[in-house]
């Protein structure tokens, strides 16, 4: 029997915060006490959890006394402001923002890949970017077997990646468009209904957007592979939830498609969806609500030596965010 923990969910009213609660319930996480924290404008809201009503409290520096665990998804600025207070309180902060991912002192963890890094924490563990997680979970078994030299990824990212308000905007725009009304973007920079556009993060001097740069840098850190070559093109698509990616890899040694299929069939966190006869492969609609990342379209890429191609879909809010963080906490506190 695991020790029951005093847990806070920081950013509880957001899409990931709500998913934290769902997963804590589903996975029977051992909770002695639960604190729900958000910004001042959300304070006072009532949230039901496991038959009990909780009031959302405003997150302040003194909100963390006596806690064991803080699951955080309240934005980078909030994480940076409150992290010193969380660490000082003695709680472990598992942070779902980009605030600490590239800090060399802070572990960046995907439990299926580098769980050993969890033990190195000094009070904070960073949760990787959703697109990075969805890409790397299916690639790691291959990397372990034959070492990946190069990764090229094109993402198809759902509205969920921009939060609950972006998901609602997609629904509203789709309805307005079909009713012949004017479509007005408010949350996202362009019309998302019946459209695709380059990922809505800032473009750097090198022409890469922040999302693409995260995938490059985070892969090197998680794989402990500074020399791995990674490039990405990130695109927002009119899907409510679950990101997809077309991935092309080049490995040091030859590996057959059949060998890859066997590897992935036995790997954690993956479900093989690869039926060529029926032309049935991963779809975000079917990845939604799933813990596993769906992997298919496995085929040889004959344009390079030792090349492989695949298509994956994963629930951005679950494995791409909340589930990964809860899994980290389960390992950190030895929860079976």
Structure, briefly:
The chain contains eight helices and 15 strands.
Number of strands: 15
- Name of the CATH first level of the largest domain: Alpha Beta
**Can you summarize the main beta sheet?**
7 strands, mixed
The parts where pLDDT drops under 50 for at least 5 residues are none
> SS-based structural class?
alpha/beta
- Shape estimate: globular
Give the number of helices: 8
Any idea what the radius of gyration is? 20 Å
Tell me the number of structural domains: 2
> What is the string of SSEs from the N terminus onward?
EHEEEEEHEEHEHEHEEHEHEEH
Mean pLDDT: 96
**CA-to-CA gap between the ends?**
8 Å
| CATH structural fold name of the largest domain | Dihydrodipicolinate Reductase, domain 2
Assigned CATH superfamily of the largest domain: Dihydrodipicolinate Reductase, domain 2
Helicity range: 25-40%
């Amino acid at each position: 029997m695991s020790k029951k923990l005093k847990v806070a969910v920081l950013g509880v009213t957001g899409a990931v915060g709500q998913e934290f609660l769902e997963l804590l319930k589903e996975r029977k996480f051992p909770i002695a006490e639960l604190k729900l924290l958000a910004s001042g404008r959300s304070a006072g809201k009532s949230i039901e959890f496991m038959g009990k009503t909780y009031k959302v409290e405003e997150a302040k520096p003194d909100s963390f006394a006596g806690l064991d665990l803080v699951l955080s998804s309240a934005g980078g600025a909030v994480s940076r402001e409150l992290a010193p207070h969380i660490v000082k309180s003695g709680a472990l902060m598992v942070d779902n923002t980009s605030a600490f991912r590239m800090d060399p002192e802070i572990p960046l963890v995907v439990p299926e890949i580098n769980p050993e890094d969890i033990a190195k924490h000094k009070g904070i563990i960073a949760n990787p970017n959703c697109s990075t997680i969805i890409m790397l979970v299916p690639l790691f078994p291959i990397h372990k077997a034959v070492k990946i030299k190069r990764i090229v990824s094109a993402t198809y990212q759902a509205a969920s990646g921009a939060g609950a308000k972006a998901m609602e905007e997609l629904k509203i725009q789709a309805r307005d468009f079909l009713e012949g009304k004017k479509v007005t973007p408010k949350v996202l920079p362009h019309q998302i209904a019946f459209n695709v556009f380059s990922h809505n993060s800032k473009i750097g001097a090198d022409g890469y957007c922040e999302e693409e740069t995260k995938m490059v840098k985070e892969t090197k850190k998680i794989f402990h592979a500074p020399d791995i070559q990674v490039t990405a093109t990130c695109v927002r698509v009119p899907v409510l939830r679950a990101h997809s990616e077309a991935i092309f890899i080049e490995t040091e040694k030859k590996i057959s498609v059949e060998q890859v299929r066997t590897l992935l069939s036995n790997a954690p966190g993956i479900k093989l969806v690869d039926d060529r006869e029926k032309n049935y492969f991963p779809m975000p609609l079917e990845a939604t609500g799933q813990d596993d990342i769906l992997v298919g379209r496995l085929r040889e890429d004959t344009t390079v030596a030792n090349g492989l191609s695949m298509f994956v879909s994963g629930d951005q809010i679950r494995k791409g965010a909340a589930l990964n963080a809860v899994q980290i906490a389960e390992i950190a506190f030895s929860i079976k």
